[in-house]
Amino acid sequence: MIERDGLLLITRRRAGTHLSGLWEFPGGKPEPGERLEDALVREIKEELGALVTVGERIERVDWQYPDKQVSLTFFRCVLSGDPQPLEGQEMAWVPPSDLSRYQFPEADATLIERLGRAPGMA
User: What is the pLDDT of residues 8-32, one digit of tens each?
Assistant: First the structure.
């Protein structure tokens, strides 16, 4: 989760990907043997051309979709530079209270609700 000036950065999953069209917090899947934090730094650089410093873990969610099991770990991150949607994905800076206006994957629901009711970022 990347915050700047009280806004959270979200991106929209591209067509042809699992859960395409839904919004998400930028990040990605680790390579075999890669630490979660290192994968996050790599994915943000590849997808948004920006560097992040990974901070504390905020939440972990294990979720079963009909076609796939996922484990999501959310970290607080500090962004260096201005992100650009390098893979053609939509990108938005959103106040936490507005996250519920965007359609996220079901696995993100608890975190979205928590962020929407917390003063400042959770």
Answer: 999 998 887 777 889 999 998 999 9
Domain containing 27 — which CATH number?
Answer: 3.90.79.10
DSSP 33-68: T--HHHHHHHHHHHHHS-EEEEEEEEEEEEEE-SS-
DSSP 112: H
> Would you say residue 110 lies in a domain?
yes
Cβ burial, residue 95 (10 Å; 0-12/13-18/19+): middle
Task: Give the three-class secondary structure for 96.
Answer: helix
Which pLDDT tens digit goes with each residue over 107-117? 888 788 878 76
Whether residue 122 lies inside any domain: the answer is no
User: Is 51 within the bounds of a domain?
Assistant: yes
Residue with tokens 């899947």: 29
